[in-house]
Amino acid sequence: MPRPILATIHTDALRNNLQVARRAAPQARHWAVVKANAYGHGIARVFEGLRGADGFALLDLDEAQRVRDLGWRGPVLLLEGVFEPRDLELCSRLDLWHTVHCSEQIDWLAAHKTHLGHRVFLKMNSGMNRLGFTPERYRAAWTRLSALPQVDEISLMTHFSDADGPRGIAHQMAVFNQATQDVPGERTVSNSAATLRYALGQQGGANAVPELVSDWVRPGIAIYGSAPDYPQHTATQWGLQPTMSLAAKIIAVQDLACGATVGYGSSFTAEQPMRIGVVACGYADGYPRLCPTGTPVLVDGVRTRTVGRVSMDMITVDLSPVPHAGTGSKVTLWGRTPGGAVLSIDEVAACAGSVGYELMCALAQRVPVEVLE
Questions:
Q1: Most exposed among 52, 87, 136, 232, judged by the fewest C-beta atoms under 10 Å?
Q2: Is 39 annotated as catalytic?
Q3: pTM for the predicted model, two decimal places
Q4: Active-site residue 123, yes or no?
Q5: How far apart are CA 15 and CA 122, in angstroms?
Q6: Which residues contact 155 (CB under 8 A, 6 or more apart)?
Q7: Given 113, 224, 264, 357, which residue is catalytic?
Q8: What residue ranges of the chain are covered by domains with CATH 3.20.20.10?
Q9: pLDDT tens digits, 117-157
Q10: CATH code of the region 11-226
């Protein structure tokens, strides 16, 4: 019998979440961001749920090849562009659009032999200070690109550093709009947080930033059912549904006397007699080791808590709220139960001082995965 742990990918939730993004920015076309192997979900597993997107945005050529092998013939964007000159050959062969964020990438394009012009996305560093040309150098980069016969069309791109926080996006939008004034080309600026919080279609436009113009938006974490600005908003408040559920079963039960301790370091001490369940999930499965006592779990759909340290292969949970539970009872570590109860991945991540992105991407290879259509 296989070890009783399973991750489930919910195709219906992927479709729902993409529609949430579309309602927020109905005037734009939507990339489905599937970098990091679709945020740990698996590109092949999410493909059917995200076919309604206008394009797929990802990180490297291997991911692009997988999307093409799945039969996608629409736009595919390399978010960080190419990493060496020979990558441009595969861009030509696979018809990939790619970001240009530094002068070296322009040099490589200038030396690239191709009969087909490339669609490029010229990235501005409007304050994130990772990739992109500074506003002062942006127009010169656009002029140089536009003169290349290897370039067919140039789109304009930036990325927000604070769309999920109180600082917001206005300061970067002002920089971007000023530097791109009268520069032709489609624009892509909005990530998940900007799309949900500031696009004209969201909340009747109450929080809309009129200067926020995106021909393309780039929803990433939102399409996987995590709130980009948690805890200010929950996924449920945005209308998002969990796309990944992680569940395991109780494999043993222990009865603790008052004063008994649990796990490595004896970090939990029972203050009264209690039952605990031992669950077939640990940090080697991707469950965060830093989750402390009190991290929420669902046992047979009932909310309870972890107790003691997370081990490599096991965690222990308090069965006091679930007196009927025992060996074989189902424990949902995050996501949704068959009965419809939901435990947000954002809430679990916050207990570990992390974010939902990390938990999704950290799902271990040893965990079996099913796709629920």
A1: 136
A2: no
A3: 0.94
A4: no
A5: 30
A6: 97, 119, 120, 121, 122, 185, 186, 187, 188, 215, 216
A7: 264
A8: 11-226
A9: 999 999 999 999 999 999 999 999 999 999 999 999 999 99
A10: 3.20.20.10
